[in-house]
């Protein structure tokens, strides 16, 4: 079953003579449980594609459907709710809140959902175990290595059990060993959570 369907997607920046085509008639689908990497040189449109999938940018033409939701049909408020409820994000620069513990950072998306989650502690423990965070749950981001911070960011991204996890250069701030470890963590997480994301 396709969790993501992209049809004839194009994105053009600029006006008239200064136009830049970042994406050109792109079509593909990703099935639930697939682990997909997008590679290419700088300026190839990778971040533009991720921004469109994340409803941060709109395409010039084409359609995107995620988990049965036509992104074009959503207004701004619905897009914000869609991001909160259906997507998980891992960023290169982590975006952790320095004055919050690892536990508080990881649980933040559940707090933003403003719903009662009786299984919060269980979900936290499960994600912490998967990403080897249990020993550092009470630490603050400033006390962590880069690899630990990236795993905290991943835990925060998956705690809501999103339909789709998007990661924009998640290993860019890590050395090669930490990057390999982090990608292995994501791969293991994907295997354990199939067919969710």
Automatic annotation (TrEMBL):
Lyase is among the record's keywords: no
Highest taxon above the source species: Bacteria
Listed InterPro entries: AAA+_ATPase, ABC_transporter-like_ATP-bd, MacB-like_ATP-bd, P-loop_NTPase
Q: Which Gene3D superfamilies match?
A: P-loop containing nucleotide triphosphate hydrolases
Question: In the UniProt record, does the keyword ATP-binding occur?
Answer: yes
The record's GO molecular-function terms, alphabetically, read:
ATP binding; ATP hydrolysis activity
User: Where's the ABC transporter domain?
Assistant: 4-197
Spell out the PROSITE patterns in the cross-references. ABC_TRANSPORTER_2
Q: Which Pfam families match?
A: ABC_tran (PF00005)
What's in the keyword line of the UniProt record? ATP-binding, Nucleotide-binding, Transport
Q: Which SMART domains match?
A: AAA (SM00382)
Family note: Belongs to the ABC transporter superfamily.
Indicate what this protein is called per its UniProt record. Antimicrobial peptide ABC transporter ATPase
To which species is this protein native? Lacticaseibacillus paracasei subsp. paracasei Lpp122
């Amino acid at each position: 079953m396709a969790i993501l369907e992209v049809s004839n997607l194009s994105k053009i920046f600029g006006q008239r003579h200064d136009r830049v085509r970042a994406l050109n008639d792109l079509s593909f689908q990703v099935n639930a449980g697939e682990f997909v990497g997008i590679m290419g040189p700088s300026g190839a449109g990778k971040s533009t594609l991720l921004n469109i999938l994340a409803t941060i940018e709109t395409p010039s033409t084409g359609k995107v459907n995620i988990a049965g939701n036509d992104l074009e049909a959503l207004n701004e408020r619905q897009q914000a709710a869609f991001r909160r409820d259906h997507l998980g994000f891992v960023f290169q620069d982590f975006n952790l809140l320095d004055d919050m513990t690892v536990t508080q950072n990881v649980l933040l998306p559940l707090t933003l959902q403003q719903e009662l989650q009786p299984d919060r502690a269980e979900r936290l423990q499960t994600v912490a175990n998967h990403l080897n965070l249990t020993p550092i749950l009470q630490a603050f981001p400033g006390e962590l290595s880069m690899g630990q911070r990236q795993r905290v960011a991943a835990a925060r991204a998956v705690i809501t059990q999103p339909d789709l996890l998007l990661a924009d250069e998640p290993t860019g701030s890590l050395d090669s060993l930490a990057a390999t470890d982090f990608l292995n963590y994501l791969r293991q997480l994907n295997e354990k959570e199939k067919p969710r994301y």
